[in-house]
Design goal:
By secondary structure, this protein is mainly α. Helix content is 81%, strand content 0%. It is a multi-pass membrane protein.
Length: 265
């Protein structure tokens, strides 16, 4: 990819975003829309600066839950996928329950989890983990099962044991799949944490950004509500970019999807 292409990939979305913000601000000012109905970008920026203290503290709470949920989902998802790859019977027995866990709306089960678990932070963590777990498990399982059978036969021909095949062949093959699932689960963990915070509605020092949104809504401080939404969106973008960078760093020297040639169209 040339320098011009890289610049275009950055500047084009920024230009579109700037035009949308300018149009939004112009619409609000020309039509005289009050801020408690639809605040403009300037009012949202002012609220973000004015209320940065409580909003940033809530952001850290939400990010902590998201990061822990993603770490647990990645660890358990990878471990269970490896077990599935070693035992097809185990995969056939347990994978349907993982699907059931994925398709069950977190909004429906979050109240039950919060009731059953005494600790609020732990209940939020469980809700976020449930949402983030399946993409990692599913993608990694597919990656482990996508190993070239010719290479598997070659390893067996040279007398490689099961764990040598797993460590030197199947896990490297599954790495791009695992990292793709990780990128998906990063945003889902954030969504799960936000949804759980909405249901829990906890205030005080343990309040996340979802509680700040509820609080601003009750007080009709709509610019603050939008400021919290901006932080949530920024956090989601930051998580995706960080995981994309991690994927690029791990794959750039050997996998076509991250090599320079893989970016050519």
């Amino acid at each position: 990819m040339t320098g011009r292409d890289r610049g275009l990939r950055i500047l084009a979305p920024l230009a579109i975003g700037l035009l949308v913000l300018l149009g939004w601000e112009a619409l609000v000012r020309l039509r005289g829309i009050p801020p408690y109905v639809l605040p403009g970008p300037v009012a949202i920026a002012e609220a973000l600066v004015r209320d940065w203290g409580p909003l940033s503290a809530s952001l850290l709470v939400t990010l902590k839950i998201t990061a822990l949920a993603l770490l647990i989902a990645a660890s358990l998802g990878l471990l269970l996928a490896v077990l599935f790859a070693q035992s097809p019977v185990l995969e056939l027995s347990l994978f349907p329950y993982a699907v059931i866990l994925q398709v069950t709306p977190i909004v429906a089960i979050a109240p039950l989890i919060i009731i059953w678990v005494d600790d609020v932070t732990l209940s939020l963590l469980i809700c976020a983990w449930i949402v983030a777990f399946f993409p990692i498990l599913s993608n990694t399982t597919v990656g482990l099962n996508s190993t070239d059978h010719n290479l598997l036969d070659l390893f067996r021909l040279y007398g490689a044991g099961r764990w040598q095949v797993l460590w030197r062949l199947r896990l490297p093959t599954a790495m791009p799949y695992f990292l793709a699932g990780l990128r998906i689960s990063g945003g889902l963990a954030l969504i799960g944490a936000i949804v759980a915070e909405f249901v829990a509605g906890t205030g005080g020092n343990a309040s996340g950004l979802a509680y700040r949104i509820l609080e601003a809504g009750f007080q009709l401080q709509i610019p603050r509500m939008f400021a919290a939404l901006v932080l949530i969106s920024a956090a989601g973008i930051g998580i995706f970019l960080a995981l994309s960078l991690l994927s690029h760093l791990l794959l750039r020297r050997w996998h076509e999807s991250a090599m320079a040639g893989g970016d050519r169209r």
